[in-house]
């Protein structure tokens, strides 16, 4: 029996492994005995061919720096091949390779300078205090829905110039956008996600862009719309998916 054979039937994406949180013991074993592991299928997605998992930091670093062999732009950034059109992934800078990735990332960073974040610090403190004050007198709360979600939504939205009354709408949008495989968030499945949700979000994002083209402000969307590097700006598609990426990162990843 080969050293890797005990792991041949392991599918890292099997949600049963994650019921009680990340399967740390499994990953410890994989790092020690099978650091480059092949999962032959993806539960719930019979048309997918499977995926490789790297579990050692040095391997991850090597792969992440070798964009010629392990291209985000050619192969996508997801373990699935048939869910979301790869053209959409290529419109986000996380789905691009250098030098295009570096150019667009530089444009985005214009909105996140140290000075800009420092200027925003009093507002961030105010947001956190306001959310915590709502819990005064309560004996219990849900840490995600009552604390982290409203804080991270208002913080990123305040950077982007989104009014507070739209926080819940965009948080719900991003729940569906980032959780496309969750039947509770996307009961219509992949078809609804691709044909209804994403076009709706693109339309909503374009509605945020147009007024800022005519009348720029100091919010992050205006910065993205008007930022230039060597005379180049983001095109409309790059700006739209960049805005959706910011919404997703702020509402989901940060939380």
Automatic annotation (TrEMBL):
Gene3D superfamilies noted in UniProt: Cytochrome P450
InterPro entries noted in UniProt: Cyt_P450_B, Cyt_P450_sf
Top-level taxon of origin: Bacteria
GO molecular function: heme binding; iron ion binding; monooxygenase activity; oxidoreductase activity, acting on paired donors, with incorporation or reduction of molecular oxygen
Family: Belongs to the cytochrome P450 family.
This protein's name: Cytochrome P450
